[in-house]
């Protein structure tokens, strides 16, 4: 979405109790960034409004740019560990999985498949369930042509960055991330149809809907074809698994691993729901049924007999397989007339034209994998930064100043 020439003013219509003492309500014309004096010493403070939302991550940061039907899309990665062997093919494999054949190998992707003319008839009215209405309400700018920054084409940068994150995770810890379609409309893949321990990329990519079960893949394809010929659309669910994730990834309270995963998944276009482990179905269990009991395996590792927690407990990975699901709504642009409202506040009918997916769920699979990889990469780097200075050592758990802790601490700092 192109930025407007002048930013909309910051309106402070909320109660003044949210401002520092002595500061009145901000005027309608207040700029997005302003200075004011606070207290008797007139200390300078700064109130800033951050609304870009173009950067993801803290340690492994990804900034995407470009928009649907614009000149190109891409990403900038900051914080990448050095000396990582990387080729164009590493990223191209993942980009090709998005099934848009207009990619090139350059970091800036020319958007040669854009068809801005398809949207000329939709420029005067808000498209139901699209972002152009809310963009207009907030910024005074409409992303009519394909959704602008809200378009799924923005995710090209995410997938490219995710390819790098996947490679680093594999090299560092042997982490494997796979996603597949587990539901299309009313066709639901049974929970026991896929073995999370053994499912492979080849099984997932063996059909166009990316469902590892051939029988249910055919049912999903039939469901999509049924609505396609009617000019309609349907949604579904993507299941994602992450194997070999080290224990200890994540943090308590606000930065829980599942919270970071949820944010990442719900940032994807058309996503509408997230659940991890047993999710909402966990409400059907009692505590004794739902708890994952611990045991010692043959190698002397602490494991859980079940995995209803989804590999995360207390916001921190426990070493089991992480698995979660992401729900995607039906494609908003359909080939049927819909009632809507124009920018002049008139009731009108709208018929979308152009090429649109009857179901976006299969194409969301590599996007889900990429966002999972970005989260795990960022969290792994945070874990290393925080915890590897003093690796877990039982002797160091004694109070600082004791003889044993002092003798153990000195070598670790040398």
TrEMBL record:
Listed GO CC annotations: cytosol
Catalysis: reaction(s): 5-O-(1-carboxyvinyl)-3-phosphoshikimate = chorismate + phosphate
Cofactor note: Reduced FMN (FMNH(2)).
SUPFAM superfamilies xref list: Chorismate synthase, AroC
GO biological process, one term: aromatic amino acid family biosynthetic process
Named cofactor requirement(s): FMNH2
Keywords: Amino-acid biosynthesis, Aromatic amino acid biosynthesis, Lyase
Pfam families, per database record: Chorismate_synt (PF01264)
Enzyme nomenclature, EC number: 4.2.3.5
Coiled coil stretches, renumbered: none
Similarity comment text for this entry: Belongs to the chorismate synthase family.
Record's protein name: Chorismate synthase
Native organism: Miscanthus lutarioriparius
């Amino acid at each position: 979405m192109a930025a407007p020439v002048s930013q909309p003013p910051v309106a402070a219509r909320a109660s003044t109790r949210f401002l520092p003492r002595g500061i009145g309500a901000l005027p309608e014309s207040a700029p997005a960034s302003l200075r004011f004096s606070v207290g008797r010493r007139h200390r300078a403070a700064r109130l800033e409004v951050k609304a870009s939302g173009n950067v993801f991550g803290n340690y492994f940061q990804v900034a995407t740019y470009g928009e649907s039907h614009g000149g190109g899309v891409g990403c900038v990665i900051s914080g990448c560990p050095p000396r990582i062997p990387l080729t164009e093919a590493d990223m191209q494999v993942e980009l090709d999985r998005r099934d848009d054949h207009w990619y090139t190998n350059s970091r800036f992707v020319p958007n040669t498949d854009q068809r801005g003319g398809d949207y000329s008839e939709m420029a005067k009215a808000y498209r139901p369930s699209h972002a152009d209405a809310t963009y207009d309400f907030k910024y005074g700018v409409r992303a009519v042509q394909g959704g602008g920054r809200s378009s799924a084409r923005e995710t090209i940068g995410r997938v490219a960055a995710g390819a790098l994150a996947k490679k680093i995770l594999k090299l560092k810890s042997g982490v494997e991330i796979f996603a597949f379609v587990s539901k299309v409309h009313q066709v639901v893949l049974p929970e026991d149809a896929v073995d999370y321990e053994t499912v492979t990329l080849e099984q997932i990519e063996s059909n166009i809907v990316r469902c590892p079960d051939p029988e249910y893949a055919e049912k999903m394809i039939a469901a999509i074809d049924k609505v396609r010929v009617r000019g309609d659309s349907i949604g579904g669910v993507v299941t994602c698994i992450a194997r070999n994730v080290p224990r200890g990834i994540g943090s308590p309270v606000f930065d829980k691993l599942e919270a970071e995963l949820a944010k990442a998944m719900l940032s994807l276009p058309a996503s509408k729901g997230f659940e991890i482990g047993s999710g909402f179905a966990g409400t059907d269990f009692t505590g004794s049924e739902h708890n994952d009991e611990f045991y010692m395996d043959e190698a002397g590792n602490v494991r859980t007999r079940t995995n209803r927690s989804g590999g995360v407990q207390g916001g921190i990975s426990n070493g089991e397989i992480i698995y979660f699901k992401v729900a995607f709504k039906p494609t908003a642009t359909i080939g049927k007339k819909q009632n809507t409202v124009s920018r002049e506040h008139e009731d009108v009918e709208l018929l979308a034209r152009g090429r649109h997916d009857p179901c976006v769920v299969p194409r969301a699979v590599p996007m889900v994998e990429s966002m999972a990889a970005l989260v795990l990469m960022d969290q792994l780097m945070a874990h290393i930064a925080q915890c590897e200075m003093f690796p877990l050592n039982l002797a160091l758990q004694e109070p600082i100043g004791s003889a044993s802790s002092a003798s153990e601490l000195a070598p670790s700092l040398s």
